[in-house]
């Protein structure tokens, strides 16, 4: 996320390479997003679906964004997860899937005093 509320997206792959950055302008109000974890981008018949977590003020939210094939937002939904995030400076969501029946997701957060939470 940028300070101007734009979401940027770039696909990273092994053997160092990266796709061209794409973006969704003005997804949020200027300065609204304090932190953003990585978003998952999945192709759909209509375009693509992106989901991930953002911290707005003191609250963490799950964000779902649907885009058409030209990258225009067709729908966006925020769901509040919880508060207490004002003392944190970074967070990330990690997903591990060793087979279709064993999906594990961990949330990591770094507090301003250097304490790492999982």
Any overview of this molecule?
- There is one protein chain.
- This protein is mostly beta strands and 118 residues long.
- Helix content is 0%, strand content 58%.
- It is built from no helices and twelve strands.
- The strands form four sheets. Strands 5, 6, 7, 8 and 9 form a five-stranded antiparallel β-sheet that branches.
- The two termini are 23 Å apart.
Q: What is the general shape?
A: globular
Mean pLDDT: 83
What portion of residues belong to β-strands? over 45%
Order of helices and strands: EEEEEEEEEEEE
Helix content: under 10%
Number of helices: 0
**Number of DSSP-assigned strands:** 12
Low-confidence stretches: none
Gyration radius over CA:
15 Å
Distance between the termini: 23 Å
Would you spell out the secondary-structure blueprint of this structure?
Blueprint: E1 7-9, E2 12-13, E3 17-18, E4 22-24, E5 33-36, E6 40-43, E7 47-56, E8 59-68, E9 73-82, E10 88-97, E11 103-111, E12 116-117
Antiparallel strand pairs: 1-4, 2-3, 5-7, 6-7, 7-8, 8-9, 10-11, 11-12
Outline of this structure?
The protein is mostly beta strands and 118 residues long. It contains no helices and twelve strands.
Task: Record keyword descriptors for this entry.
single chain, 118 residues, mainly beta, 5-stranded antiparallel β-sheet, 3-stranded antiparallel β-sheet, 0% helix, globular
């Amino acid at each position: 996320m940028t300070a101007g509320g734009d979401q940027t997206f770039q696909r990273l792959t092994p053997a160092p390479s990266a796709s061209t950055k794409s973006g969704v302008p003005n997804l949020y109000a200027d300065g609204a997003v304090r932190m953003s974890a990585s978003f998952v981008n999945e192709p759909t018949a209509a375009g693509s679906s992106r989901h991930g977590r953002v911290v707005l003020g003191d609250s963490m939210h799950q964000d779902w964004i649907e885009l058409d094939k030209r990258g225009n937002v067709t729908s966006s939904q925020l769901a509040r997860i919880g508060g207490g995030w004002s003392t944190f400076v970074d967070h990330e969501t990690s997903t591990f899937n060793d087979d279709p029946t064993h999906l594990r997701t961990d949330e990591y957060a770094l507090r301003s005093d250097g304490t790492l939470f999982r």
